[in-house]
Amino acid sequence: MKVIDRLTQAAEEKKTLFSFELLPPVRGKSIQSLFDAIDPLMEFNPAFVDVTYHREEYIYRELPNGLFEKSVQRHRPGTVAVCAAIMHKYNVDTVPHIICGGFSKEETENILIELNFLGIENILALRGDAAKGEAAFTPHPDGYGYASDLVEHITSMNNGEFKYGENTGFKTGFSVGVAGYPEKHMDASNLDTDIKYLKQKVELGADYIVTQMFFDNQKYFDFVDRCRAAGITVPIIPGIKPLTTKKQLTLLPNIFKLDFPQELIKEAEKCKDNKEIKKLGIEWGIQQSKELIEYGVPGMHFYSMGRSTSVKDIAEAIF
Ligand code: FAD
Hints:
Blueprint: H1 3-12, E1 17-22, H2 32-38, E2 48-51, E3 56-62, E4 68-74, H3 79-90, E5 94-99, H4 105-118, E6 122-126, H5 147-158, E7 175-180, H6 191-203, E8 208-213, H7 217-229, E9 236-240, H8 248-256, H9 262-269, H10 274-295, E10 299-303, H11 309-318
Helix pairs in contact: 5-6, 10-11
The structure holds flavin-adenine dinucleotide.
């Protein structure tokens, strides 16, 4: 079922959807670790499960002559197959993330065709970040530079217009989600500009928005107000990441350019070890989730990062 149809149904029934996000296994590892992460969460009846996409990384190896050899490797391959495997094993809808970075337009169209043949009806369309080892995002020479271009491509296919090969009247039927940033995307000069481009993604065919993680609900409430004022009417699903390690206190703001609320920092400073941080992360996640549900969010999307225990504890308290 399409995510947008689930969202519409849930809104009619005044329900909040539960969903979570997983990473494909690291190259060389079994898919069993993913199943182990999903198993405890199935009792909460997830509306859909997202699987992230990971672009190639540039690896620089020093040679005996002092020069560097550059090689390219995809560290977490298999998103399409992981989605299909989860769908078959659990009979749950999966949402593969599709990124622009590292792919030509034709390769992207090929992946979309594969997804359609597998019966996967949902996509989260993203630009992707710079490849590890590269300073800034650079599009593939024959690829897309913005998620909006990708959304436009998917919409064309939904209208029966494939960019490559012959058009026979066959149409895909993807529901498309896109990313939104309550604390602004790191490349955007300000939130208004970022929201202007978010609106463009919606106008080109996105059905719903999933936000970047945030730890202060007020940031989400303000973001939704500003999106609505800008004329964005689609559902905006909050993305929640339970804090699990002390390291994340510096890592997450650095990577995602977000702020932790002072109250959370103060509480985290009192924690002796990661066990206590994890407990705090669960308590904070429950508090955040309860307030968001009370506000009337369409769904709660959890960044599980392959570890389901915190998400399970939060889901147990709120659903
Ligand atoms: P875009 O919407 O293209 O925006 C990127 C930047 O360009 C923004 O600053 C925007 O304001 C600006 N912009 C947009 N359109 C234009 C335009 N036409 N002209 C000028 N500027 C413009 N990354 C992965 O690699 N794999 C994943 O699986 C993945 N999953 C994610 C899931 C979620 C829910 C979120 C929030 C992020 C995810 N990311 C993932 C990270 C994401 O790829 C990065 O944040 C990336 O830097 C931006 O992606 P985007 O789709 O928001 O880009």
